[in-house]
Amino acid sequence: MSPETIIATTVTTAVGPLSVLVSPDGVVRAAGFASVPTMAARLEQASGPFELREVGADSGDPALAEAVDALHAYAAGDLDALGRVRVSQPGGPFMQDVWVAMRKIAPGSTATYAELAAAAGRPTAVRAAGSACARNLVAPFVPCHRVVRTGGGLGGYYYGLDVKRSLLQVEKGSAVE
């Protein structure tokens, strides 16, 4: 049996280049503000080997259409667009619950790690909720950038705090500096 094919592209955003990796049926399997090879390595480490086919964002590849269209809609002000995109990433039941809870944080809003743990059904699992944020392979479609420390501090972000800050500014209607 041959390995799964993953189609990848890079989309220019106001925050920076965003790599998007999708399965042939258009489900986003990895996305982030890092190079396609970096995102492919993260996905392969989490889910095993696959064949990578990289195309241009304007290639018209139907597998990429949903994700690319949503990114353009998000950039045009439809801040809910990314939450409507189909995503899939490997992880146990609690991580899946955390990622679902993350997608329910409204654009322009934030939640603390403690609030996220509670929303995922395990209020004492604050560190595990933070771990789910760190392992999120499909940012910003699963918006871990909306999760902050108690007291409002930004906390961490795999792609750097400047990217996290910029995403939050975009969602609150502020210009990206």
Structural features, described:
The chain has 177 residues and is an alpha/beta fold. Helices cover 37% and strands 15% of the residues. It has six helices and six strands. The strands form two sheets. A four-stranded mixed β-sheet has the order 3-2-1-4, sandwiched between helices. Strands 5-6 form a two-stranded parallel ribbon. A hairpin with a 5-residue loop joins strand 2 and strand 3 (28-32). Helix 3 (93-103) packs across helix 5 and helix 4 crosses helix 5 (126-135). It starts with a strand and ends in a 6-residue tail after the last helix. The model has no long low-confidence stretch (mean pLDDT 93).
Summarize the structure.
With 177 residues, the protein is an alpha/beta fold. The protein contains six helices and six strands, in the order E-E-E-H-E-H-H-E-H-H-E-H. 37% of the residues lie in helices and 15% in strands.
Counted by DSSP, the helix tally is 6
| N-to-C CA distance | 48 Å
Widest sheet, order of strands: 3-2-1-4
Identify the overall geometry. Answer: globular
Question: Mean pLDDT, as a whole number?
Answer: 93
Secondary structural class:
alpha/beta
C-alpha Rg (nearest Å)? 16 Å
Main beta sheet: 4 strands, mixed
**Beta-strand residue fraction:** 15-25%
User: How much helicity do the residues have?
Assistant: 25-40%
- Along the chain, the helix and strand elements come as EEEHEHHEHHEH
What is the number of E strands? 6
- Give the uncertain stretches in residue-range form: none
